[in-house]
Amino acid sequence: MIYTVTVNPALDYVIQLEKVNGGEVNRSNNCSFLAGGKGINVSQILNQLKIDNTAWGFVGGFTGKELVQQLNQRRIVNDFVTISDVTRVNVKIHAEQETEINAAGPKITAQEITAFKDRLSDLKQGDIVVLSGSLAPGLPRDFYKQLLPTIKAAGAEFVVDTTGAALLDTLEYKPLVIKPNHHELADLFNTSFNSDEEMLTCAHKLLEMGAQNVMVSMAGKGGYLITHDHFYNAKGAVGTAVNSVGAGDSMIAGFVGTYVQTGDPAESFRIGMACGAATAFTKDIAVKSQIDAVLPQIKVEQIS
Asked: Is 20 exposed, middle or buried (0-12, 13-18, 19+ CB in 10 A)?
């Protein structure tokens, strides 16, 4: 089983209009509520790939009920902890340019944190936990790291989609895969890259620090996979990028979902790249037909 964790999900209020006139009354052409969150995005792609998964996290209030209802409609299995505070609403304004107003999120109590940690007792050998997204107020900064000893003790694997010191702090627990983009990778080592060779050298250092696999995404230029045995490269798919939101989540979902089925990191990388590109080429999280359309373009080459 794959468990996706979204500790600070949101109900996204998406407003569409031609132009925003500041200081005036504006009327939208269309508006909608959509369940959002990085772990939820991962679950959506896993569902498209027909891979069993369960969404974990915290929800509360009328917004939390709507979020869960939307997940149920999408047939995303979920087991969220119900909290006393209200799930946040993020406002997405699509006009002549896109504007986002993201709320901080609900406060999580100590009792609610304990209830979430109790979910980890369900983990079994071979399960994978995907931890991603921002932390809700009240959660300790090292919340994800606190979960790792229990996950590993159960014989499960984990993925943490984060950056900076929060990412480095997880490496001693040997994450299944990490996915910095090339800018985030440079920031990890306080440097800049003059060549792909320099970038790959830094990526390999992350393996030495504990990561089992490292994917480096380079947007339209493709990406690299670094394992303990080989280096792989995949060129970017050809298409018009219209959406960066969820592309990285889709890439992780494709990798993790394929890996749990095959144990093959190169094939997992290929599917991950296709999922990421397919989402980038659509205004929402990609569906299976869009992933299948992109997949023939993704060629993985072993470079060492």
From this structure: middle
Residues 177, 252: Cα–Cα separation, whole Å: 8
Average pLDDT over residues 272-285: 92
Cα separation, 272 vs 161, in Å, equals: 14
The separation between CA 179 and the C-alpha centre of its own chain, rounded to angstroms, equals 10
* Least-confidence region, from 46-50, 96-100, 240-244, 295-299: 240-244
User: In a 3-state reduction of DSSP, which class is residue 106?
Assistant: coil
Q: In Å, what is the CA distance from 109 to each residue of 5, 71, 96, 216?
A: 17, 24, 40, 36
At 37-65, the pLDDT tens digits run: 999 999 999 999 999 999 999 999 999 99
**Is the model's pLDDT at 221 over the cut of 90?**
no
Q: Is 18 exposed, middle or buried (0-12, 13-18, 19+ CB in 10 A)?
A: exposed
| Model pTM score | 0.93
pLDDT of the residue at 236 = 85
Question: What percentage of the chain reaches a pLDDT higher than 90?
Answer: 80
Cα–Cα distance between 107 and 4 in angstroms, integer?
21
Proportion of the chain above pLDDT 70, given as a percent: 100
Where do runs of H (alpha helix) occur along 31-109? 38-48, 61-73
Gyration radius (Cα) of the chain, Å: 19
Of 16, 39, 36, the residue nearest 27 (C-alpha): 16
Active site residue 264: no
Catalytic residue, chosen from 142, 187, 249, 264, is 249
Beta strands in the chain (DSSP E): 2-6, 10-16, 30-36, 53-60, 81-83, 88-94, 98-101, 128-132, 157-161, 214-217, 223-226, 231-234, 300-302
4 in Cβ contact with 132 (< 8 Å): yes
